[in-house]
């Protein structure tokens, strides 16, 4: 469940995750320390794997097509999603750059990320696991609530 977050489908997948980890992880590490970043990464990865398995156990049998599951559980996306979304929750008015060039308010980017993942789960099989990403989103929300003293 953890080693899948260190494997990737292709170089583009690896590159995208590492760019997100570098830019957003650097900010989280500067603010809370590298130990917190590591804990957030591992918790995001494990929770993403649990969400992936839960989707496959409870939702996928109703949507399964001939040939089995088409969405692999590979990559750091759930862990990186936890890191990116925590940064967005902490700084919702910050400008982020979509594809490194297009300025977008962080809150809007967060809504787009979570919305796209909800759509992927509703739609069913795709090349991207929306459920894993949502696991990372839950970890970010829990970490944010803890930082704010809500839990």
Automatic annotation (TrEMBL):
It is a multi-pass membrane protein. Its main location: membrane. It comes from the Eukaryota. GO terms for cellular component: membrane. This is Peptidase S54 rhomboid domain-containing protein. Keywords: Hydrolase, Membrane, Transmembrane, Transmembrane helix. GO terms for molecular function: serine-type endopeptidase activity. The chain crosses the membrane at residues 38-59, 71-90, 96-119. Belongs to the peptidase S54 family. The keyword Membrane applies. Residues 2-142 form the Peptidase S54 rhomboid domain. It is found in: Membrane. It comes from Aegilops tauschii subsp. strangulata. SUPFAM superfamilies: Rhomboid-like (SSF144091).
């Amino acid at each position: 469940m953890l080693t899948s977050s260190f494997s990737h489908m292709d170089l583009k997948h690896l590159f995208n995750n590492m760019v997100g980890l570098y830019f957003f992880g650097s900010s989280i590490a500067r603010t809370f320390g590298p130990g917190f970043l590591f804990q957030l990464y591992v918790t995001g990865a494990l929770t993403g794997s649990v969400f992936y398995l839960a989707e496959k156990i409870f939702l996928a049998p109703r949507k399964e097509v001939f040939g089995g599951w088409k969405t692999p559980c590979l990559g750091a996306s759930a862990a990186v999603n936890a890191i990116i979304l925590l940064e967005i929750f902490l700084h919702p008015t910050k400008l982020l750059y979509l594809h490194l060039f297009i300025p977008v308010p962080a809150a809007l980017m967060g809504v787009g990320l979570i919305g796209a993942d909800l759509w992927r789960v509703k739609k069913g099989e795709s090349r991207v696991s929306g459920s894993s990403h949502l696991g990372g989103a839950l970890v970010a929300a829990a970490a944010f609530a803890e930082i704010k003293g809500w839990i």
